[in-house]
Amino acid sequence: QTLKATEVEKMEWDQWSCVLGPTCEGIWPPKSDVTDVNAAHRSRDGSTLATADDFGFVKLFAYPAKGKLAKFKRYSGHSAHVTNVRWSADDGLLSSLGGADTALMLWKHRESDSNDGGGHSDDSDTDSEEEGYDSD
User: Fold this and answer.
1) What does each C-alpha distance from 107 to 7, 17, 94, 101, 120 come to in angstroms?
2) What pLDDT does residue 15 have?
3) CB of 63 within 8 A of CB of 43?
4) Distance between CA atoms of 59 and 10, rounded to whole angstroms?
5) Are 83 and 98 spatial neighbours (Cβ–Cβ below 8 Å)?
6) pLDDT digits (tens, 9 = 90+) for 12-63
7) Looking at the DSSP assignment, which residues form a beta bridge with residue 129?
8) What is the secondary structure of 102-126 as a DSSP string?
9) Contacts of 113 (CB under 8 A, 6+ apart)
10) Which bin fits 6, alpha (ψ -120 to 50), beta or left (φ > 0)?
11) What is the reported pTM?
12) Phi, psi (5° rounding) for residue 120?
């Protein structure tokens, strides 16, 4: 049996770790190809989608990330592409795995209104560095 995309979107999934589909179409940077976002993982509470990309960034999107160019928070730490991201069972930590640097990084997940001097992020509505960048 073949299901329509709208039917699949209504299903309640335990996890979401796909970079393709209607609930994550907004994760793709301008002028990117299908290989530029390497991994995605939705938090267990269903509110946040983390991605790993060829530009060396870990990004957090509100889930679902529908439409083109969804807003995100961007974090850097890896020296090259990021191959994977996964949330901990309690959503308190996000792990990311680097490609060329082979580093495993653990990121503490905090509410966005927290002002405790934690890690710095860039907001998507002020950045244009990735536009026109081709990773090939």
Assistant:
1) 34, 18, 5, 17, 11
2) 85
3) yes
4) 25
5) yes
6) 888 889 999 888 999 998 888 889 999 999 999 999 999 999 999 999 999 9
7) none
8) --EEEEE---TT--SS----EEGGG
9) none
10) alpha
11) 0.80
12) -90, 140
